[in-house]
Amino acid sequence: xxxxxxxxxxxxxxxxxxxxxxxxxxxxxxxxxxxxxxxxxxxxxxxxxxxxxxxxxxxxxxxxxxxxxxxxxxxxxxxxxxxxxxxxxxxxxxxxxxxxxxxxxxxxxxxxxxxxxxxxxxxxxxxxxxxxxxxxxxxxxxxxxxxxxxxxxxxxxxxxxxxxxxxxxxxxxxxxxxxxxxxxxxxxxxxxxxxxxxxxxxxxxxxxxxxxxxxxxxxxxxxxxxxxxxxxxxxxxxxxxxxxxxxxxxxxxxxxxxxxxxxxxxxxxxxxxxxxxxxxxxxxxxxxxxxxxxxxxxxxxxxxxxxxxxxxxxxxxxxxxxxxxxxxxxxxxxxxxxxxxxxxxxxxxxxxxxx
Length: 355
Description:
The chain has helices at residues 16-25, 39-48, 58-62, 79-88, 103-116, 130-140, 166-181, 295-308, 317-335, 348-354, and strands at residues 5-10, 29-35, 53-55, 69-72, 92-96, 120-123, 147-157, 190-196, 206-212, 218-224, 226-238, 242-246, 254-268, 271-286, 341-342. A nine-stranded mixed β-sheet has the order 14-13-12-11-7-10-9-8-15. A six-stranded parallel β-sheet has the order 3-2-1-4-5-6, sandwiched between helices. A hairpin with a 7-residue loop joins strand 12 (242-246) and strand 13. It is of the alpha/beta class and 355 residues long. Helix 7 packs across helix 9. The protein has ten helices and 15 strands.
């Protein structure tokens, strides 16, 4: 197709094959190359996606004029260096989560993309699943009312990562989802992190994050490498309804409960105050029908559309920075024994408000 954009995938390890497969079948993209230091691994992947070119030197790849964009699927410590090189070469960039391994490096990536007029997209894959897109839609239309709490659980057995703790490994998924579905994104002033290393692995293997949200609401994220059972669940409570997302239940991923607590106000001695008693609302439960679509295919389409329309993608560099800023604050809180740590402002309006 003459209007296809041309992309190369950098990294043929764990996540790169998933990206390569989706770009290779996307009507918006023509996959032209796989780049990896391990030629044999790159050749194996290239053969599985149609025999595209194999490159082992990033500079050689970026010098090509038949590459419009790159998708980076390498360790987080390499994201900044690779993205900056790609942007300097005039390529649009998609980066696997987390955006970088430090927020100042992520900020440099965002600023360079903006100055160059190029798209920088965070690979927040869950945000393109039909379930999360529906959650965002329901919240936007006010079906849940004002958000009161978000409670997210992501636990399973392994894999214990050699270079990061459980927060940096698992929590980016939950944080990116919360950022995507909440109006205005995830902008907590502080975060408290509590972690444990009962195995003596040298890093937190079990962890809890607490993030205060606007208007007295709260988000709680539980991550765990040691659970014998796998749970992927998020509960979002609002003043009107409560939504439960169970990602491991394909028959009923989303349930919306018209149940909750109503606090009435009454005048006592001429002063309006919360009533001493509460009423419980017990209404219907319903589950919206969801299409079955692969999230990575939707993300590939969004990447292409954002480039063609010269706009920020739904999960842009700032979304990646907001997640990264929370992770860094969580690390500081963990080092301080769980004390609340300030989350650095990310967006321009936040920076202005912080001054």
